[in-house]
Design brief:
This protein is mainly β. It contains one helix and 14 strands; from the N terminus they run αββββββββββββββ. 4% of the residues lie in helices and 32% in strands.
């Protein structure tokens, strides 16, 4: 019954056309997350909270800029704080972006990566600690793969590269003790635990990418302060399965054109051949 109630609330908020997940805290409050398809090319991430009785306490769209952003996963720690992973594609100075809209002014202060450098086309992860009382982001750091080592803010070395940033796409977040763990697919060399904002280092134990996904499956461990990497662990396909592939859209078959019935041409009447008149010969007497 409660699930039906929550689904009804989602639809009342015009969110019933989005993908979402749910979890419950120790007091029975329910949290839902996902994204709303705002336009054909823009998705707005949301997290919402309902009381055990059903009424909505708060719901928040964390990014309403042109950046394509989704809430991928959500969990709770032992102190009742929410921890979320968002995935985003693009960048924006719009005041409605995720850094400004429902975020504490000091959320990106003294964290591991307060930006993701040049680029913006690949998928980038945002790890965030969220206040369960009002949904505000209290602390956050970006995680991404890089196509070059060194300073995040340095210009790219190879002009042939579209950008220095590469895809680091999250799948799951969990909290254990004082550590935050993020499972993700890394399209390029994952970050080494020694990486910092001013010196990105390729993970020395990365080995070869998994040919099945063309990526590295990894789990990154961070402290709750989000100011460094504690450990990076390579995952198997069983620990982090491939993402389901979207079925390819089949081209629509064109309906055969209806041919108009051929009009019968009226038969032309052939002129009758006149028989030569018989000349009657008269006999002379």
């Amino acid at each position: 019954m409660k699930q039906i109630l929550i689904l009804g609330l989602l639809c009342a908020l015009a969110l019933c056309d989005v993908h979402f997940g749910r979890l419950k805290d120790s007091e029975g409050n329910v949290y839902g997350w996902g994204y709303k398809q705002a336009t054909k090319i823009q998705q707005d991430p949301f997290i919402a909270k309902w009381s055990p009785e059903g009424p909505k306490i708060w719901y928040i769209y964390y990014d309403q800029s042109l950046v394509d952003t989704r809430t991928v996963n959500l969990t709770l720690d032992e102190d009742g704080f929410l921890w979320a992973v968002f995935v985003m594609d693009g960048g924006s100075y719009d005041p409605k972006n995720i850094r400004k809209l429902h975020t504490d002014p000091d959320a990106f202060k003294d964290v591991l990566f307060d930006n993701y450098g040049s680029g913006g086309g690949p998928h980038v992860t945002l790890v965030a600690k969220i206040d369960p009382e009002d949904g505000k982001i209290l602390k956050a750091t970006y995680l991404s793969a890089r196509m070059q080592e060194g300073n995040f803010n340095a210009p790219k070395k190879n002009k042939k590269w579209r950008s220095a940033t590469n895809t680091f796409k999250p799948k799951e977040i969990r909290v254990q003790g004082d550590s935050v763990f993020v499972k993700a697919y890394s399209a390029y060399h994952p970050m080494d635990p020694s990486s910092t904002q001013s010196n990105y280092v390729f993970w020395k134990e990365a080995g070869e990418r998994d040919p099945a996904c063309g990526c590295w499956r990894v789990e990154v461990e961070l402290p709750k302060t989000l100011d460094k990497i504690l450990n990076v662990r390579k995952l198997t396909a069983a620990e982090l399965p491939d993402e389901p592939k979207k079925p390819k859209a089949q081209p629509k078959k064109k309906a055969p054109k209806k041919q108009a019935p051929k009009k019968e041409q009226p038969k032309k009447e052939q002129p009758k051949k006149e028989e030569p008149k018989k000349v009657e010969e008269t006999q002379k007497n």
